[in-house]
Amino acid sequence: MFVVLIFSYLLLSIVLADEKSYDRRYDYFEVDYFVNNHRTACEKCTPLQKKFTKKAFDAFKTSLPESHAELKRKYDPRNMYYDTFETAIAI
């Protein structure tokens, strides 16, 4: 019985130790592909993806307006795509 208790404790500590970081599923997500892809304005996004994206962009604009403006200048210096993208993700 003592061995089962020790084994259970070790298993529990391994599981809890693993939860200290986020899921590694998106560690190799190719964000540059989407950032540099000016051909689409989320045209294949599902409504849920649009909702998530809008919420993330709105939070970024509100919380970090200087960084948001800097990234907008960097990736859309002629302001050709951003407004279309914001319209596309508006639900």
Automatic annotation (TrEMBL):
<feature type="signal peptide">
    <location>
        <begin position="1"/>
        <end position="17"/>
    </location>
</feature>
<keyword id="KW-0732">Signal</keyword>
<dbReference type="Pfam" id="PF03392">
    <property type="entry name" value="OS-D"/>
</dbReference>
<dbReference type="InterPro" id="IPR005055">
    <property type="entry name" value="A10/PebIII"/>
</dbReference>
<protein>
    <submittedName>
        <fullName>Chemosensory protein 15</fullName>
    </submittedName>
</protein>
<dbReference type="InterPro" id="IPR036682">
    <property type="entry name" value="OS_D_A10/PebIII_sf"/>
</dbReference>
